[in-house]
Amino acid sequence: MSDRIFAYTVVLDDTYKDEDAEVIETAIRMVKGVLSVSPQVADSSTYYATEKARKDLASKIINVLYPDRGN
Asked: 28 with 37: CB under 8 angstroms?
């Protein structure tokens, strides 16, 4: 029995100004089967979450490379 897919999430490689992102949005709308496209606006919480994830990952990498740091 096959699964039924109802949605995909597309994440862009960077933040884009809204006028530059219109080209990407138009291209996604042109894909067969796409019903709607809803852009998500980046705000301060977006940047906070990205920076927190980077710091958490960096901390884990440092703990792997230098396990006797005392953490």
From this structure: yes
Amino acid letter for position 37:
V
Q: What integer is the mean pLDDT of 5-15?
A: 90
Task: Return d(Cα 41, Cα 27) in angstroms, integer.
Answer: 18
Q: Are 71 and 63 in contact (CB under 8 A)?
A: yes
Closest listed residue to residue 21, CA positions, set 33, 10, 31: 10
Is the model's pLDDT at 69 over the cut of 70?
no
Question: 28, 38 in Cβ contact below 8 A?
Answer: no
Look up residue 60 and give its two tokens.
Answer: 């884990």
d(CA 60, CA 65) in angstroms, rounded, equals 9
Mean pLDDT of the chain: 91
Which residue bears the tokens 């005392």? 70
